[in-house]
Amino acid sequence: AQKVTQAQTEISVVEKEDVTLDCVYETRDTTYYLFWYKQPPSGELVFLIRRNSFDEQNEISGRYSWNFQKSTSSFNFTITASQVVDSAVYFCALSAPRTGNQFYFGTGTSLTVIP
Amino acid sequence: NAGVMQNPRHLVRRRGQEARLRCSPMKGHSHVYWYRQLPEEGLKFMVYLQKENIIDESGMPKERFSAEFPKEGPSILRIQQVVRGDSAAYFCASSPPAQSSGNTIYFGEGSWLTVV
Fold first, then answer.
1. Which of A37, A101, A104 sits opposite B98 (nearest CB)?
2. Element (H, E) at B11
3. Do residue A101 and residue B104 have CB atoms under 8 angstroms apart?
4. Which residues in chain A have their CB less than 8 angstroms from residue B36's CB?
5. How many C-beta atoms lie closer than 10 Å to residue B2's C-beta?
6. A45-70 tens-digit pLDDT
7. With 0-12 CB in 10 A as exposed, 13-18 as middle and 19+ as buried, what is A34?
8. CA angle at residue A59 from A58 to A62, to 5 degrees?
9. Does residue B8 have a cis bond before it (omega within 30 degrees)?
10. Dihedral class, residue B63 (left if φ above 0, else alpha if ψ from -120 to 50, else beta)
11. Residues of B in contact with A46 (CB under 8 A)
12. A51 and A68 in contact (C-beta within 8 Å)?
């Protein structure tokens, strides 16, 4: 079965601190895809990144970086020098060919950046 | 640059009424998905549709819920005889024709249903 666990329910940091959001996944598939989405207070879901299981190269986009480690089944997300606008709920998700086009979401991590 | 369009954003229904949620996919996207987000929970898959076809409805409740994506017009998620437990955010997502299941899906802004 596919499963995504985001153990951190809520995190608060002071502005300019770095913060890492954890994501651990379970799958029996060798081909799968991992995603992060952001849900700001306004409610919409914003796509952040997609990773396939064959590409373990870490990625950096501005203040955002992602660390994919198959050995620990983790796909962690780090925000450097956090800002108030980063306050949101962040969801990690997984999809795999064997289970069609379903996305399996974690329960989300609510990040609050305090000015 | 029209993304996934959902309406209404907010809907209030009394118990027993019907709720209809509409979703227009992004331009060029022929696949539509519906997800439900209950309070304090992550998103749960409900149904996956292509034009005039339901591909996967394994996440749909067996009763009162139905979805369609007609040849013309938006996809509709219909909830009959709503109950308080149906109160949730309903998100529609779309993707281009899938060569594989690794396509990114893009979400609309959600429709918040409140049953009173």
1. A101
2. strand B10-13
3. no
4. none
5. 8
6. 999 999 999 988 888 889 999 999 99
7. buried
8. 145
9. yes
10. beta
11. 107
12. yes
Q: 10 Å Cβ neighbour count for A92?
A: 28
For every residue of B92-112, DSSP letters joined together read EEEESPPSSTT---EE---EE
CB A12 within 8 A of CB A114: yes
Mean pLDDT of chain B: 91
On whether the CB atoms of residues B36 and B16 are closer than 8 A, the answer is: no
Express each pLDDT in B66-79 by its tens digit.
999 999 999 999 99
The residue whose two tokens read 């060919």 is A97
Give A65 to chain B, closest Cα distance, Å.
19
Q: Is A109 exposed, middle or buried (0-12, 13-18, 19+ CB in 10 A)?
A: buried
Distance from CA of B96 to the nearest CA of A (A): 12
Contact state of A44 with B108 under an 8 Å Cβ cutoff: yes
| Contact residues, chain A, for B58 at CB < 8 Å | 102
Q: Which amino acid is at A69?
A: Q
Whether B100 has a pLDDT exceeding 70, the answer reads no
Q: List strand residue ranges (DSSP E) for A1-115, in order.
A: 3-5, 10-14, 19-21, 24-26, 33-39, 46-52, 59-61, 64-69, 74-79, 88-95, 104-105, 109-114
Token digits of residue A18: 């770095």
